[in-house]
Amino acid sequence: MDDCRKILVSGLEALNQELTEHQIEQLLTYIALIEKWNKSYNLTSIRDKVSMVPMHLLDSLAIVPFITGKRVIDIGTGAGLPGIVLAVCFPDIEFVLLDSNAKKTRFVQQAILELKLKNISICHNRVELYRPEHNFDIAITRAFASLEDIMRLTTHLLNNEGVLLAMKGQIPDVSMLEAAKTELYPLSVPGIEGERCLVKIHLNNVAEVS
């Protein structure tokens, strides 16, 4: 685990972020759990912890500066990414992690228990069927769907000031979103050579682009 710790600490410095020793331990424990459960649950195509640090932890941490509000939903969370990582960083924000895959939500529930995270709820459901009691300030998607589908499937989950944060690889074509207030942010993730970006879409303009 020493190599994982070194990569994580170095990555945090590159991202200009600080975490407590306890938070660092939580993140390292988390990827150890993914590696353990991956053998039977097929949570991720990345099999070793060292590779998981940049591809999963640092990739998730790259969007920390964009997290605001009190309620956040991670749609298509899979193994809990980026939701668990962000919940570790923001213990005062309420996170809902949603996925339609029962095996993955079972893993996420176990990870939450082992990490003793009190600010996460799990929802095993399809995004289009989920109707929360209270809407969210932010909806996050990571490798979930096209921007058009993300907008179509998620806007009912957000409050009037809510925003969609779509984590993408290459910068997508956002020409179809010209009428919406859309912001593109290139992301530099330590240890990942490929292009990464974040698309921020403001809900109060989305209705104009259907």
Structure explained in plain terms:
The model has no long low-confidence stretch (mean pLDDT 90). Helix 2 (21-41) crosses helix 3 and helix 2 (21-41) packs antiparallel against helix 4 (83-89). By secondary structure, the protein is α/β, with parallel strands linked by helices. The protein is 38% helix and 22% strand. The protein is built from 7 helices and 7 strands; from the N terminus they run H-H-H-E-H-E-H-E-E-H-E-E-E-H. Helix 6 links the parallel strand 4 (136-142) and strand 5 (158-168). It has a single domain (2-209), classed as Vaccinia Virus protein VP39 (Rossmann fold), CATH 3.40.50. It has helices at residues 2-14, 21-41, 49-61, 83-89, 102-115, 147-154, 203-206; strands at residues 71-75, 94-99, 120-124, 136-142, 158-168, 182-187, 196-202. The longest helix is centred in the N-terminal third of the chain and has 21 residues, at 21-41. A 7-stranded mixed β-sheet has the order 3-2-1-4-5-7-6, with helices on both faces.
How is the topology of this model organized?
Elements: H1 2-14, H2 21-41, H3 49-61, E1 71-75, H4 83-89, E2 94-99, H5 102-115, E3 120-124, E4 136-142, H6 147-154, E5 158-168, E6 182-187, E7 196-202, H7 203-206
Parallel strand pairs: 1-2, 1-4, 2-3, 4-5
Antiparallel strand pairs: 5-7, 6-7
In short:
The protein has 210 residues and is α/β, with parallel strands linked by helices. The chain has seven helices and seven strands; from the N terminus they run H-H-H-E-H-E-H-E-E-H-E-E-E-H. The protein has helices spanning 2-14, 21-41, 49-61, 83-89, 102-115, 147-154, 203-206, and strands at 71-75, 94-99, 120-124, 136-142, 158-168, 182-187, 196-202.
